[in-house]
Specification:
Blueprint: H1 23-70, H2 73-78, H3 84-99, E1 103-107, E2 139-145, E3 148-158, E4 173-182, H4 183-191, H5 194-222, H6 228-244, E5 248-253, E6 258-261, H7 263-269, H8 287-294, E7 302-306, E8 309-320, E9 323-333, H9 335-373, H10 377-401, H11 405-420, E10 424-427, H12 438-459, E11 466-474, E12 485-492, H13 524-534, E13 538-542, E14 550-557
Helix pairs in contact: 1-4, 1-5, 9-10, 9-11, 9-12, 11-12, 12-13
EC number: 2.7.13.3
Domain Histidine kinase: 447-560
Membrane topology: Multi-pass membrane protein
Length: 577
Amino acid sequence: MTARILRRPPRTTAPRTRPRLSLTGSLFVGYVLLLAAALVAVGSLWVFHLDRHTDRQYTERVLSVARAVAVMPAVVEGVQSRDPAAALDPTADRIASATDVEYLVIASPQGIRYTHPDKDRIGEMVSTPPGPAARGEEWTGVETGTQGRTVRAKVPVFSGGGSVNGGDARGEVVAYVSLGILSSDAATEARAAVPAVLGTVVVVLGLGVIGAWSLSRQVRTKTHGLEPADITALLESREALLHAVREGVLAVDAQGRLVFANPPARAMLGLPDGAEGRTLDELGASERVRDIVSGADRGRDLLLLSGDRILVANRRTVRIRGEETGAVVTFRDRTELDRLTGELDGARTVTRGLRAQTHEFANRMHTLAGLLDLGAHEEARAYLADLSAAHTRTSTGIAEHVADSAVAALVIAKSAQAAEIGVDLRISPMTEVPALDRGLRADALLVLGNLVDNALDAVAGGGRGWVELMVRLHRAGADGPPHDLLEIRVTDSGHGVADGIAEEIFRLGFTTKASRDAGGRGLGLALVKQVCEGRGGSVEMEAPDGEEGAVFTAYLPAAERASAGAPEGTGAAGEDR
């Protein structure tokens, strides 16, 4: 047996990652560095400006002293005496001592010194050429001489006195005055101000550090301690979530400006690109949309018609720290659901009609059985004949005018429903319905069912009322419409619609039915209007007199128009009576 030695793999330590500086830390360091750089630049410019100012000050000082010396009578007479050095040197020493200058030299135009702080250099040539002073011009600048680097001025002395600066110079140049101060003295004076500059910079930098720390703390509070990566991830997640949901999401701020609208909301409400930052009024939204978004129409699951869509809207107010900052509105598209509900209502209508027929059939069978039990055979035979004739007339009348089986079935069911509630449903002799295509049939059933139900509700319970139905397909032709057009007209003998609400009958949510039915009301005529306008047709109501009932007429083009969306303004379309 051989034994295997299992060796444990060497333990590897994960590389330690350096902790990244937080957002507030980065901002703090950035603010401090930026402030420090700015203060260094400002301090340097301050010192440079102070140095230049000191140089100008010293230059003006030596120039003014040199001008004063050049026009002194003792100097003018001394340079023209037999021994200029003996006459001028004591005077120059007194002036230099009184003005605290480094040196005062009086020399001939050729550069021979008459005075000098170092007596051994009297009578020698000057270390720097006279320059413009020998030609009768003043000069200032910095030169290096026997006393070192100095800020100096050279001013000519005229035989008749006067100066160039005063404009009263007389005679020829007989000498010039050279007066200077060591530049190191000027630099020393400039450097004396450096500690004050540095102290000011340090104080301002300290205040800036405190301000940067306070600002970084405020930023941390505003961002709830989130780092840039967290904020980016949160933003990306928000965008992905809001763009992934099928429901429309729309957000507005406290001023009613659009902040966000995901693609479903744009499609549902017909909002253009770049709508953010604009109000719903500027975007041309319907009054119904504005009422829901602004909160003027409060409630849950509010119905909204937008184009060919049936939307359900819910609004939530956004509050931050107890202050209202806007609102978020969600929209759900229930168009298909309502269409399926309409088809289900049609099926229920047929079921109710069949149940009514069954109930009526059972009553008639009981009547017939009673006649037979009583031995009234002739009466039973006549009763059967009448029933057969009535049924045949109803079925034959509908079959003669309505060739479409689905429409015929709905009319028969509505006839039975009308008979059950004591209403006479009449079929107009002008009714003529051929077999319809699937799309037109579905819309016709929805319109027909809602209009007939509306009329039956209007006349029910008011005595023996009646409803007349006319459905006719108008063929396109020279004398007819430009395309096949299905006309559905429902006339009732009910109480009619008052003139004051005739224009309101198609407004969303409007109903004249009892409050006990209000939960399921307010959408019938809205759907009719939506379907008609979605196909490029229309629906209208005639109310000539309250005692004459009402007439609803719907027009459905056989060919649905290319753009099924209704024009602007249909978003708040009507409701049933």
